[in-house]
Amino acid sequence: MTALAIRQVTKSFGPVSALTGVDLDVPAQSFTAVLGPSGCGKTTLLRLIAGFAAPDGGTIAFGDQQVAGPGVFVPPQRRQVGYVPQEGALFPHLDVAANITFGLPRAARRSGERLAELLDLVELGRDVATRYPHELSGGQQQRVALARALAPKPSIVLLDEPFSSLDAALRLGTARAVAQALRAANATAVLVTHDQDEALSLADQVAVMRSGRLVQAAAPDVVYASPADPAVAAFVGAAVLLPGTVRGGTADCALGAVAVAPGAVEGAAHLLIRPEQIRILAGSDAVPAAEGVLARVGEVAYFGHDATVRLQLEPSGPEVVARVMGTRTPAAGERVRLAVDGVAAAFPANGH
After folding, report:
1. What is the pLDDT of residues 286-324, one digit of tens each?
2. Going from the N-terminus, what domains does the chain have, and what CATH number goes with each?
3. pLDDT per residue over 235-294, tens digit each?
4. CA-CA distance, 296 to 314, in Å (whole number)?
5. Contact 319/313 with Cβ under 8 angstroms?
6. How many CB atoms lie within 10 A of CB 142?
7. How far is 138 from 317, CA to CA, in rounded Å?
8. Where is the ABC transporter domain (predicted)?
9. Calpha distance 203→160 (Å, rounded)
10. Which of 4, 135, 272, 324 could disulfide-link to 233, CB 3.0 to 4.6 Å?
């Protein structure tokens, strides 16, 4: 069942078009991440869903109820939407218990049952209830903000880059705890983010926006392995894009003969190869010339668990980037041979 249906939504601010013909379906009890760079329209879309603004055209429906469209506009307080802003926006003069239960009927606030349930849901101890926002860490504040959004059991929870202000160590743990809490509550959630790792690791569906348009909406693995176009490929994760020629399920390119995904159009193409697909076989002297393509190691960026390696294809080929295990990092200046694992996505060079 579809919890949220957006059809041909447009929005402009003066001469600037923020959204152009956006279509998106969000299944019930699912987690959708709207992913895109700054200025692509993703926050505007979230505001239209929440009811903070009205679209210029198109419709927005929650289930079978239209909340925005020609002659229809349901105000935000009647949409049963939970909203988690970037900074949490907790009331500084209220303790955690009062913040969480702020939108509940007086009887529900007095009983304390819903408060206890929500604290457990977002994995905060009962002792946190009497603390004030300034006494909490950034991650705890975001969990309280989520608990407050979930308290009245909204039909949809909207999250506007809620982890962007957290440091890297806190961000991942908080994001995962929030995602788990949303799934445990059987909530339908829409997250706006510019962080590709966040979108791919948390969401059931990733909706990629560019210049006010929705260019692809699919499961994370589909968006990563089969992006809609080269621009999506370059934005969603690291990408090696090479020109090539597709014939009979194989493409010839600077990295040799590479298998392509089924259905690839024959002829000139742009090939997408992810850095983790590029395998460094061994030093050039240790591997027969028939195996792999010769390259020289350039810059190596070491991250502990893995490393990225810039490689200049020889004798005069392009530069490519490989991702390797941190324990198998070649030395700068070393000559190696390369091979490609798996299949490449192929985009027709003429754009059709």
Report:
1. 666 667 889 999 999 999 889 999 999 988 889 999 999
2. 2-230 (3.40.50.300), 238-352 (2.40.50.140)
3. 998 999 999 999 999 999 999 999 998 888 999 999 999 999 999 987 666 666 667 889
4. 7
5. yes
6. 29
7. 47
8. 4-236
9. 14
10. 272
